[in-house]
């Protein structure tokens, strides 16, 4: 299987803090990988370095073998990297459809006008919001705002989808729907990195997991093995002790 995304010696320092400490990682095309770790271990920062939201301190991000770490976020989006944010980021002055259509204008296929609106409506239907294109973002409840953010990410038909705690805050019924939605994207062959604290979701969605602790990769392997790894258990227990 060809490698879709590769991180080589990925490092991010914020002043004296090493948030991401020389991470190496290869994700084959179509793989779905969980990225776990206690609060503050560097998961969101890794996604930010992959998507281009933050510049890295050193290392490389390779997309289909090509270095992309020097490219701006919108350029990486055009190459097929899409993401959702840990805290939902939507434009409240635009309706649901236009939130998606706007990002499509700057996205992979540079779609405008009717073509963009059509693509947006299809994405809304995929995430369980059929016919809701005209609604104000402000009138959507929390799960529907999350759905909209996912619709915006997948509307561009990305190769790689980065989900930052997309399932957090959902009630048990919504969680089931959310897990099924991500599994459907997986079936379509999308390469996915899922940052998540909900173990039920990780077990169900991700055959492989990587665990970070204090910026370092401390485990990488099949999910059942990783979740019983004593070093991983210790990292989480340490987190609980200080929580
Ligand atoms: N823009 C920033 N400026 C300074 N420090 C930052 C910045 N972003 C993150 N950090 C720090 O880097 C470390 C890693 O943060 P990050 O948000 O990547 O953790 P995380 O694993 O996503 O945590 P959580 O599970 O709480 O979302 C933390 O110590 C955080 O305070
Ligand atoms: Mg985070």
From TrEMBL:
Keywords: ATP-binding, Nucleotide-binding, Transport. GO terms for cellular component: plasma membrane. GO terms for biological process: D-alanine transmembrane transport; L-alanine transport; L-isoleucine import across plasma membrane; L-valine import across plasma membrane. Pfam families: ABC_tran, BCA_ABC_TP_C. Residues 5-239 form the ABC transporter domain. InterPro entries: AAA+_ATPase (IPR003593), ABC_AA/LPS_Transport (IPR051120), ABC_transporter-like_ATP-bd (IPR003439), BCA_ABC_TP_C (IPR032823), P-loop_NTPase (IPR027417). SUPFAM superfamilies: P-loop containing nucleoside triphosphate hydrolases. It comes from the Bacteria. GO terms for molecular function: ATP binding; ATP hydrolysis activity; L-isoleucine transmembrane transporter activity; L-phenylalanine transmembrane transporter activity; L-valine transmembrane transporter activity. Signal peptide: none annotated. The keyword Transferase does not apply. This is ABC transporter ATP-binding protein.
């Amino acid at each position: 299987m060809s490698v879709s995304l590769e991180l080589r010696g990925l490092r991010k320092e914020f002043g004296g803090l090493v948030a991401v400490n020389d991470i190496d990682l290869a994700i084959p095309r179509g793989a779905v990988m969980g990225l776990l770790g206690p609060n503050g271990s560097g998961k969101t920062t890794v996604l930010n370095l992959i998507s281009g939201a933050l510049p890295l301190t050193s290392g490389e991000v390779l997309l289909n073998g090509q270095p992309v770490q020097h490219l701006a976020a919108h350029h990486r989006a055009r190459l097929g990297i899409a993401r959702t944010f840990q805290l939902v980021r939507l434009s409240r002055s635009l309706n649901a459809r236009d939130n998606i259509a706007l990002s499509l204008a700057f996205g992979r296929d540079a779609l405008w006008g009717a073509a963009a609106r059509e693509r947006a409506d299809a994405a809304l239907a995929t995430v369980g919001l059929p016919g809701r294109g005209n609604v104000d973002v402000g009138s959507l409840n929390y799960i529907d705002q999350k759905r909209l953010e996912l619709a915006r990410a997948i509307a561009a038909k990305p190769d790689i989808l980065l989900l930052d705690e997309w399932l957090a805050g959902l009630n048990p019924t919504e969680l089931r729907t959310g897990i099924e939605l991500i599994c459907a994207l997986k079936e379509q062959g999308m390469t996915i990195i899922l940052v998540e604290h909900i173990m039920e979701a990780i077990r169900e969605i991700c055959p492989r997991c990587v665990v970070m602790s204090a910026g370092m990769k401390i485990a990488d392997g099949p999910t059942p093995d990783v979740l019983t790894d004593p070093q991983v258990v210790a990292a989480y227990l340490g987190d609980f002790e200080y929580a």
